[in-house]
Amino acid sequence: MIGRIFLFWRRGERAGGFTLIEVLLVVAILGILAGIVVVNFGGKQKSAMIKATRGSIHNVCTAIDMYETDTGRYPPTLQSLIQNDGAPNWNGPYLRGGLPADAWGTPLQYTLKGDSDYEVRSAGPDLQMGSSDDITSFTAGG
């Protein structure tokens, strides 16, 4: 048996396996492919988070409209959708699971604009409220 093992290690014959250059070439190709995959799917995550935030804003607007239908006025704060603020005919909670946040974990901002209008706003991907990438609701009155 020992004789058979040594037959594989004769001088001048190449042993089985890969050379260092072959291994490095395969690693380089895999790295390039991984880079392409990351670039192609990197923008998809941001787009999905924006869509999820728009869905959350829509759900909050629905809850605000339900509050207004029951009480005859818009809630003074989003907290009023969870706990009764003393409004007559309150039939909540209109939101479950606490105050809503956007896909990045930033709390949604709610602003009353007169008696018949409001806005729900997310800070968006840059997490800065008032910048160009903010995601806003359509106002109730318009």
Protein described:
The chain is mainly α. It has a domain at 45-142: Glycoprotein, Type 4 Pilin. 41% of the residues lie in helices and 8% in strands. It contains 2 helices and 3 strands. The protein has helices at residues 2-7, 20-71; strands spanning 109-112, 118-122, 135-136. The protein has a 3-stranded antiparallel β-sheet with strand order 1-2-3, covered by helices on one side. Strand 1 (109-112) and strand 2 form a beta hairpin. It starts with a helix and ends in a 6-residue tail after the last strand.
List the defining traits of the structure above:
142 residues, Glycoprotein, Type 4 Pilin, 8% strand, mainly alpha, 2 helices
In total, the number of strands is 3
What composes the largest sheet?
Answer: 3 strands, antiparallel
- In what order do the strands lie side by side in the largest sheet? 1-2-3
Task: Evaluate the radius of gyration.
Answer: 30 Å
Helix content: 40-55%
Catalogue the unreliable spans. none
What would you say the CATH architecture of the domain at 45-142 is? 2-Layer Sandwich
Structural class: mainly alpha
Mean pLDDT across residues: 82
Q: Distance between termini?
A: 89 Å
Succession of helices and strands: HHEEE
Separate helix tally = 2
Look at the structure and give the CATH class of the domain at 45-142: Alpha Beta
- CATH superfamily of the domain at 45-142, by name, is Glycoprotein, Type 4 Pilin
The CATH topology assignment of the domain at 45-142 is Glycoprotein, Type 4 Pilin
Strand content: 5-15%
**Shape category:** rod-shaped
